[in-house]
Amino acid sequence: MSDKQKKPQKPKARLPRGFVDRNAADIRAVNEMTAKIREVYERYGFDPVETPLIEFTDALGKFLPDSDRPNEGVFSLQDDDDQWMSLRYDLTAPLARHVAENFNEIQLPYRTYRNGWVFRNEKPGPGRFRQFMQFDADTVGAPGVQADAEMCMMMADTLEALGIKRGDYVIRVNNRKVLDGVLEAIGLGGDDNAARRLNVLRAIDKLDKFGPEGVKLLLGPGRKDESGDFTKGAGLDDSQIEKVLFFVGIKDYATSAADLAALVAGTSKGGEGVEELNLIGALVTGAGYNDGRVKIDPSVVRGLEYYTGPVYEAELTFDVTNEKGEKVVFGSVGGGGRYDGLVSRFMGQPVPATGFSIGVSRLMTALKNLGKLGQDEVLAPVLVTVMDGDAEAMGRYQRFTQQLRAEGIRAEMYQGNWKKFGNQLKYADRRGAPVAIIQGGDERAEGVVQIKDLIEGKRLAGEIEDNASWREARVAQIVVPEAELVEKVKEILAAQAEDRRRAN
Questions:
Q1: pTM for this one?
Q2: 120 is in an annotated binding site
Q3: Mind telling me which InterPro entries this protein's record contains (predicted)?
Q4: Buried-most residue among 154, 248, 339, 429 (CB within 10 A)?
Q5: Looking at residue 312, what is its pLDDT?
Q6: Per-residue pLDDT for 458 more than 80?
Q7: CA-CA distance, 315 to 40, in Å (whole number)?
Q8: 306 known ligand binder
């Protein structure tokens, strides 16, 4: 066997598809966002809770009895007692399990929020990841639609807290019961019509994309797109189509509520749904959110089998340029609704619940488009350079570093090859360090330090290339007693901050 064959194979450094590494700027942007979201949720009286990343697969409702491995949309593994577990695919199913398991200890209504990573075992694509972050708020144990109306108002407040202006977003509200009532009124009630109902809902969901004429075709015989591809329609007749289009075309709910009530009269839950929408409308109006922030909009279709009452969607209404260079409305950044059946499936008794989920990554993209993130600039650390490697000198450099940190100043002591001083300055330059602290043997003997304002130095002398040019320039550099080090650094950082403020 040759030496070549004996060599162990090095693993290839590579990421699985659908996953990304996040850099410091993205992590800070998410932290900035989530802090603002958390502040609004806390103000509404919600408390945090955290569940694990992994749950038993049947608790997630994802186990397929005819499959030897439950991997339909989830990443799964088997425990040592042969029980299947999966990475959570949302934050709602784990909350339902948590509530059911701790039902006797939990105070209802249970108002809680949480944010964290969720995982989808699906084919990744542009903008579609297998790991992404959600931020949810839920109220469990409140049967009235007051809880739903409050979710919508809280979502509006959250978007504004993140810097999205009034008029650049809308929280759109519908009710699953009304939707079901309309379908029942046109003869599509009952289990036999489940597939046709699904086709109608899918057609309604395309209203923003294709407009009323396109949806009319999808509700009827079908629609051919520009490429010639044909999508089979739901096969409704003209009278049925007219009623569906009336429903989804309602622009001013207040003037259409009576007609809608007449349309769903006699259906099992349609009337109840209209009453719930009327109450949400009254609550929103009473709180002053009917100024375009929260709007009843019957074209909202979410979670076809998941939701049991009100459904709502947060939509950003400003234009952005997509990857093809076209102007498009940014669209949805989160949504939710009432899911009264989710906790109940563990309990054998009804447990009402409603909740909202924000897609953190998608919302972050929107905020970057608006220039609303990264406003709180994080300064690079002050660099304490190393001129001598003996223990006494090193002890002093470490002391300077700790003194700066103790006063809340980011600082680091150089930890590379200190013998080439030019490398330290290049490192400070690459890091964007605002200040360098220098103390050689002569300064040490006198009990002083040199403080170099690197930002001012660049401005006066151009980019510092090497040690020689730095020595020649000798700009923006002062010598102070060791005891005055921290105060003088604070002064320089304050002056730099003022320069930045003026420049902006």
A1: 0.83
A2: yes
A3: aa-tRNA-synth_II, aa-tRNA-synth_II/BPL/LPL, Anticodon-bd, Anticodon-bd_dom_sf, His-tRNA-ligase, HisRS-like_core, HisRS/HisZ, HisRS_anticodon
A4: 339
A5: 94
A6: no
A7: 18
A8: yes
Question: Helix, strand or coil for residue 145?
Answer: coil
Nearest to 330 by CA among 169, 482, 91: 169
Task: Return d(Cα 175, Cα 340) in angstroms, integer.
Answer: 13
Instruction: Give the bridge partners for 172, in sequence order.
Output: 295, 313
- Write the burial class of residue 104 (CB in 10 Å: 0-12 exposed, 13-18 middle, 19+ buried): exposed
Burial letters 434-446, b for 16+ CB under 10 A, else e:
bbbbbbeeeebee
- 194-236 pLDDT per residue, tens: 888 888 888 887 887 788 888 898 888 888 877 778 888 888 8
Give the position of tokens 């103390």.
439
Burial class (CB in 10 A: 0-12, 13-18, 19+), 190: exposed
Known binding residue 91? Answer is: yes
Spatial distance between the Cα atoms of 50 and 107, rounded to a whole number of angstroms: 17
- Is residue 499 marked as binding? no
Does residue 139 have a known ligand-binding role? no
The answer to whether 279 and 295 are in contact (CB under 8 A) is no
More confident residue, 13 or 252: 13
Q: Does 307 belong to an annotated binding site? A: yes
